[in-house]
Amino acid sequence: MSTSRCSLVGFAVTSLLAATVLIGCDNSPSSEVTQASQNANRGSGSIEVTTGDIVPTLSLKAEVQQKPAFTLTLAERGSFKSAVKPGQVVKPGTVVGWTGGKEITTPVEATITQVAESSDELPANYAVLGYEYRGFGFTVPIGSLLRHAQVADLSGKFQIADGVGPTDCLAVVTAVASGTESSNLQATQDNSANQSATATGQEPRKIHLANYSSEDSQADVDKGSAGNSATNASGEPIASHDQAVCLIAKDVDVSAGQQANLVISAKRREGVLTLPVSAVAGRLTQGKVTKLVGGKEEVTSVQLGATDGAKIEIVAGLQPGDHVSLEAPNLDSRNK
Description:
eight-stranded antiparallel sheet; seven-stranded antiparallel sheet; 25 strands; alpha+beta; 5 helices
């Protein structure tokens, strides 16, 4: 029986910016060969190290949230010029700016909340636009995947508990930073707004981004204060270094607070060394295996890469044709 494997279909925002990536499934004949080889060796308690493909995958429990915030970040160092303002509602495909002479388009319909200042040069991963999605989504930690892929390469599927699914994420995008960074950013914005108000003899006004809407922005315009309020309220977006948002299409029947199983995947890695996770002690960057050499067992250190939950990539420490025990060194009762 063929094993279902997931492949990726790209929906690019821009070649230099975060992209929406959706996932589909096809049947991979190579998985039959790999599984057959593993099963054949399982009886002897060892497995031969071979090359194959792996789709880096992260499975999580997640909760549906309303109006998730996300950012658009530069994938490469380059210039930035904005074409939008805070409070503006943009449709999918709208040109929201330019980088390196190329258009930046938005992946979904959303409200612009923050805009970075135009610059001739910004570093990679710099957040240039902040958004609020007027729908539902999941904000989840994906740090382990980001060691092997960019957010632009990610896609997702979710299954609502006792509800709809499995359903594709509309987009997987970078989350807004939370905690101390956001608090400091808000404090800076509030102080800036108060200083501006004091200088003009006006009553200080505090604007909190979570409650600042397009209606507020329009009210500022009507009062002739858009130049100060909008800029001070929005500031510059700060992207989370380890979180992403799976956005849910608006025609999917979900409610805030519902629980779900969420699977986030990166692009397929081809022709890499892999082993079953059960044969490896460790999961993050470094691990150990029991290598079989001339009928003897040797505990060997290995460098680890991506995992799909069942297999894990071996970056260094083993060669094709090596044999290792199917049981990790620290789990083998004979080593106790």
